[in-house]
Amino acid sequence: QLSLVESGGGTVQPGGSLRLSCQASGFTLNMYAVAWFRQAPGKEREGVSCITGTDDTTTYQDIVKGRFTISRDRATNTVYLQMNSLKPEDTAVYYCAARRGVHAYTPAAYDYWGQGTQVTVSS
Q1: Is residue 30 helix, strand or coil?
Q2: Are 116 and 46 in contact (CB under 8 A)?
Q3: Which residue from 66, 83, 63 is spatially nearest to 20, judged by alpha carbons?
Q4: What is the pLDDT of residues 41-79, one digit of tens each?
């Protein structure tokens, strides 16, 4: 069975950090573009960062640029999202998703999704 599993979410104060993990089982992520999306209550799902499958090129949306870092560990079939300088507006359920091909920020473009992990930034 092909699946993605996120972990690492939690509650932190503004300015804090979290590292999210996205581990694949049943397939290798090495040739897949992997993106992190998030969805806050009452809002649409939005992409925040992506890493390509071919050469690990990374992209970030402006809302997280300079604060979040996406990376891949090919040995453990895992993609990470390091989140620093967290703000209350970063509060959301975070999802990882994988697709063959180039990176994209359109949810419908992705074939595999994790179940999500809650990130809450609050004082």
Answers
A1: helix
A2: no
A3: 83
A4: 999 999 999 999 888 999 999 999 999 999 999 999 999
